[in-house]
Write a structure and sequence with these properties.
Layout (H helix, E strand, L loop, with lengths): L6 H12 L5 H7 L6 H27 L15 H34 L8 H25 L4 H28 L3 H30 L2 H14 L1
Length: about 230
């Protein structure tokens, strides 16, 4: 029941799925009553947990070991499945700009500082160039990785980028602002746990790229089933 070889990939992917720190500030700023954000976040996380669990379980029950990273790819090539894939692509195109807003704001702030493009055409087009370059780079990376390695790439991002944001940095920040020894002990445990998980999941992920035996087995199984 448990794939011990690639189990670590699931951890990175799960953390990536729940990681939304980049949207916290925009959501809080857009709320009428920001004090209710913890309640909103809790409800949203519960809903996401239920949806992710149901979709993952249903997909695995339906397709078993040949379940692909995107379960939509398992659906037979019929008009309905093609429509679902097109709608999924449209949803990604429409939501990606929202996810890119925080990093683009940070990047343009770092490059151009407080200089505004309102009175300078050079700065204005410089910012536009940076904003256009980031999606192009992301698209190039996605094409380079390919659909076959999507799950590994997502897990890698989850291990390297999302895991520290979930476990390590919150513990470090809270350790600095609290004087309670018990809470500081919890923070230390959280940081150590996060560091260990980063090392473990990163090792499993790198090993899956170097020795893609399990992925090859899945591809062979899918080929046999389609034949």
């Amino acid at each position: 029941m448990l794939n011990k070889t690639d189990f670590g990939l699931m951890i990175g992917t799960a953390v990536f799925s729940f990681e939304g720190i980049g949207m916290v500030l925009p959501v809080v700023q857009g709320m009428k009553d920001p004090k209710k954000f913890p309640l909103v976040m809790t409800i949203a996380m519960i809903i996401c947990l239920i949806v992710f669990t149901l979709i993952g379980a249903i997909g695995y029950v339906a397709y078993g070991d040949i379940t692909q990273a995107s379960v939509v790819a398992n659906i037979p090539r019929i008009p309905l499945s093609i429509t679902v894939q097109v709608l999924y692509a449209i949803a990604m195109i429409l939501t990606s700009p929202f996810m890119l807003v925080p990093p683009l704001e940070i990047l343009t702030k770092y490059i151009f500082g407080n200089r505004s493009g309102a009175n300078s055409l050079q700065i204005k087009w410089g910012k536009n160039f940076v904003r256009a370059l980031v999606p192009i780079v992301c698209a190039a990376i996605s094409f380079g990785v390919g659909s076959d390695n999507l799950s590994k790439f997502v897990s890698l991002i989850g291990s390297v980028a999302c895991m520290p944001l979930c476990f390590i940095f919150p513990g470090l920040f809270h350790y600095k602002v609290t004087s309670n020894k018990s809470l500081r002990l919890v923070d230390i445990c959280l940081v150590l746990w996060g560091t260990g998980m980063v090392i473990y999941t990163l090792y499993v992920n790198v090993n899956s790229w170097v020795h893609p035996a399990s992925s090859s087995a899945i591809v062979i199984s899918m080929t046999n089933c389609s034949a």
